[in-house]
Amino acid sequence: MELQQLTYEVDDGIATITLNRPDKLNAFTSRMVHETVAALDAVDADDDVRAVIVTGAGRAFCAGADISEGGSTFEKTSGADIDPESEQSSLRGRDGGGIVSLRLFNCLKPVIGAVNGAAVGVGSTMLLPMDVRLSSTEAKFGFVFTQRGIVPEAASSWFLPRVVGISQALEWSFSGKVFDAEEALAGGLVKSLHAPDDLIADARALAKSLTENTSSVSVAMARQQLWRMLGAAHPMEAHQVESAAVPQLGAMADAVEGVTSFLEKRPPNFTLGPANDMPPVYPWFDEPEFEPYD
């Protein structure tokens, strides 16, 4: 898919996805939904990519949904308005922010949000399935849906309480207020605050620290295990997956290299990649099918 409203760059094993409508404060469109999914597909297909950073061009991260249609903006889901020749039929009628959040949830690489400016509405909710969120000191956040007469979207009613706790999630969702980076840090929405000029460099340093001495297959498995077990009914579900995954991975080349390099006191040279080398236990889950309400 030709990218028109975001950019995708890979440098030194780190992919950077940049929302790129700076003149519109990167307001989110249906095309951006599909371009973001396409960029994440490229991330997962490329074993040279070890981590991904998501940020915005200009002075905003994402100022929310594009509301240029005025009062009728939310009469249809943002995933619906796109050329039918380029759209998968399975995405019709679905909330566009949710399509992005679920694709982030399924990603096999660590995802770091680098929030460079205003992140409001879908600009905040799309951050929730990212693994670590770093914020510029100048960023602002807002789950503003009650002030727009709609409801939380992008699967944020599942993600937000898991990220910040139910009381904080309810306070921000009820009020719909826009709040500053310090409140986002205090509430657990972001990991740390950074000077605007340092944000991307610090995000890249974090990405390198997560990937430079780790097996990309192990990281992919760990990411899926931890996110998916948030919804498990009993720890036995985790025990069952781990009981299968440990010996399966243990028989693969990266486990041999991990132990050997440790014993030889040298950095590991892992060779497997999640595009083709995930263990047989993966996937251990079935994705729910989408059945829209009438």
Description of the molecule:
The chain is an alpha/beta fold and 294 residues long. It has two domains: 6-211, Alpha-Beta Complex (2-enoyl-CoA Hydratase, Chain A, domain 1); 214-294, Lyase 2-enoyl-coa Hydratase, Chain  A, domain 2 (Orthogonal Bundle), CATH 1.10.12.10. 37% of the residues lie in helices and 15% in strands. It has ten helices and ten strands. The chain has helices spanning 30-45, 96-105, 122-125, 156-164, 166-175, 181-186, 199-211, 216-229, 235-250, 253-263, and strands spanning 6-11, 14-19, 51-56, 60-62, 111-115, 118-120, 132-136, 140-142, 178-180, 192-194. It has a six-stranded mixed β-sheet, with helices on both faces. Helix 1 runs parallel beside helix 2 and helix 4 crosses helix 5 (166-175). The longest helix is centred in the first third of the chain and has 16 residues, at 30-45. The mean pLDDT is 93.
Order of helices and strands: EEHEEHEEHEEHHEHEHHHH
Largest sheet: 6 strands, mixed
Question: Hey, roughly how much beta strand do the residues contain?
Answer: 5-15%
Query: Which percent range fits the helix content?
Result: 25-40%
Indicate the structural class: alpha/beta
Do you know the CATH topology of the largest domain?
A: 2-enoyl-CoA Hydratase, Chain A, domain 1
- Tell me the number of structural domains: 2
Q: Quick check: average pLDDT?
A: 93
Classified in CATH, the superfamily of the largest domain is 2-enoyl-CoA Hydratase, Chain A, domain 1
In the CATH classification, which architecture of the largest domain applies?
Alpha-Beta Complex
Record field, number of beta strands: 10
Q: What is the overall number of helices? A: 10
Instruction: Return residue spans where pLDDT drops below 50 for at least 5 consecutive residues.
Output: none
Gross morphology is globular
Distance between the termini: 31 Å
| Radius of gyration, whole Å | 19 Å
Spatial strand order of the main sheet? 1-2-3-5-7-10
Under the CATH scheme, which class of the largest domain?
Answer: Alpha Beta
